[in-house]
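User: Fold this one for me? It's TROVE domain-containing protein.
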Amino acid sequence: MRIPEGPAAQNTFDWIVRGSVGDRTPRLIEGFVRAQEAGDTATWAALVREYGLSWEMLPDAAHGEVAVWDALHDSGVPQTALMRQLPRPTRLGMLPDIGGRTDEVVAQLTDPARLRAARVHPVNVLVAQRTYASGHSARSGATWAPSRKVTDALDAAFYTAFGAVKPSGKRTLLAVDVSGSMTQSISGMPISAREASAALALVQLATEPSATAVGFTSRYGARTWRESALAPLRISPRQRLDDALRVADAMPFAGTDCTLPMIYATEKRLKIDTFVVYTDNETWAGAIHPHQALAEYRRRSGIDAKLIVVGMTATGFSIADPSDSGMLDVVGFDAAVPSLITEFARGL
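Assistant: Here's what I get for TROVE domain-containing protein.
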């Protein structure tokens, strides 16, 4: 909605503060008010078409009406809203295997241009796919019988959405925790830390012009889990997510020593702009602290490198030096984290 000016702005203010609608009140507000006052399906559907109302602008009672959702789809449901709201038309029987609005919805979900325009990150699509395929909502308790075609379309959209990712353009070393504890779900979302980290690694390997991935594994002949090392995580951006997960599962795992990526890059003489660690909640430092290892890498390489540590299920940890603007701790995980990582790497 465009921010109104002049009399329209005054009328908008009057509606917000006093609930009054004037001659210059924007049409969208007028349509919203009329929708709240209406009480029948035909009127709601007509208002959607006349004013271009979105589903959020309608009363809860309207959300359970097929005719209203037909009107919303005819007017155009935005890409991210479509992914979030798929259970509703599914429960209403609008997305059968044959007929209904299924082919139209499938075409929109997998449309590369729409995914790019909406800047939909593949991890957002993965969360939507896992939620929809599960057939139930963890938050509301609602259930539905997922459509096979829609489930498959979301799976395809995950890979198509790689083209919507804006890369940081930085030389990136991804260090991934491959331990058994990574199988726990994150932040009430229908994906595990293992799936999220593998998905992010695939995306960054596919979109960053210069990126490589390693896994936290055990040293040869190690006697404790803390005797960890890094080894190449041999996944390709051309692989499917399930294949990447199998590669990670096959690696022997050890502790997540957050100093190792900088030590590894120093020993291998790698030119790295951004170090990214993906783990659940088990982060720690070895003989030296990560900020010391990062400072040493910067000194030896001459690169003002950054370090990002993402503890996807953590409730609290401290790796970053608060006085160092090139270090970032991410505690927990949601769909905004991938963009945060990219923007921090770019220095925004």
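One thing worth pointing out: DSSP finds 15 helices and eight strands in the chain.
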